[in-house]
């Protein structure tokens, strides 16, 4: 596929057929994705390829904690899990909210758990009075490359993070060292329906000239 076509049609895939994802396909996906840039070219990423159904079900079950809060906040008209505005629903309301496990982990061909070594991340924003984001530059280009490479192979996936609300338990389950963080869990499989067109805001709505409040950027 042309690069622009891959970029414009790599949507979030959560429903998969029963088609397998062969090891050789996953290896090609990771072989291409590994050329993503990382801070200082330190390449501190590690991928756990999970096919075992019981392990995938356990990861899905660990997603319920994050999903309960997400669902409760959405029902209350909030933007869930945002780091700026305090949660308005109570812990009791969250606990009483019904939320199921993240089933794409169970019904995909494989789950790729992408970890990053925090020892090699340059987190320039670590002392700012806000949630840290910059360390993600050392892992998320690689994560997105995986999804682009999967699309190019005729497969799909989605960048899932809901299980990270239970990261300590997930790390125990998978034997992840203390100094590593889970950046993403990617269910990969053959899409039930392949997206051909995505809807996104036009450039003039997301880009401005010279300042945040500058004129909309247009050619």
Automatic annotation (TrEMBL):
InterPro entries given in the database record: Nitroreductase, Nitroreductase-like
Source organism of the structure: Mycolicibacterium tusciae
Superkingdom, taxonomy of origin: Bacteria
Keywords, in A-Z order: Flavoprotein, FMN, Oxidoreductase
Protein's name according to its UniProt entry: Nitroreductase
Occurrences of domain Nitroreductase (ranges): 12-190
Cofactor(s) essential for the protein: FMN
UniProt entry tagged with the keyword Oxidoreductase: yes
Family: Belongs to the nitroreductase family.
Gene Ontology MF terms: oxidoreductase activity
Transcription regulation found in the keyword field: no
Any Pfam family the entry gives: Nitroreductase
């Amino acid at each position: 596929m042309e690069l622009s076509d891959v970029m414009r049609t790599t949507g979030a895939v959560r429903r998969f057929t029963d088609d397998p994802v062969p090891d050789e396909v996953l290896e090609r996906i990771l072989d291409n994705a590994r050329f993503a840039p990382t801070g200082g070219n330190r390449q501190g990423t590690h991928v756990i390829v999970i096919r075992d159904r019981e392990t995938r079900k356990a990861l899905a079950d660990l997603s319920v904690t994050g999903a309960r809060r997400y669902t409760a906040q959405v029902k209350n008209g909030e933007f869930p899990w945002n780091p700026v505005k305090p949660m308005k629903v109570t812990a009791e309301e969250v606990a009483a909210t019904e939320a199921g496990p993240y089933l794409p982990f169970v019904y995909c061909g494989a789950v790729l758990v992408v970890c990053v070594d925090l020892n090699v991340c340059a987190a320039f924003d670590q002392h700012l009075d806000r949630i840290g984001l910059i360390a993600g530059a050392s892992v998320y280009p690689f994560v997105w490359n995986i999804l682009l490479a999967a699309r190019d192979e005729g497969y799909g996936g989605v960048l899932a993070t809901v299980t990270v609300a239970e990261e300590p338990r997930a790390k125990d389950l998978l034997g992840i060292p203390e100094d590593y963080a889970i950046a993403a869990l990617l269910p990969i499989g053959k899409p039930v329906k392949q997206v051909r067109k995505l809807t996104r805001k036009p450039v003039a709505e997301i880009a401005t000239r010279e300042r945040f409040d500058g004129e909309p950027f247009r050619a």
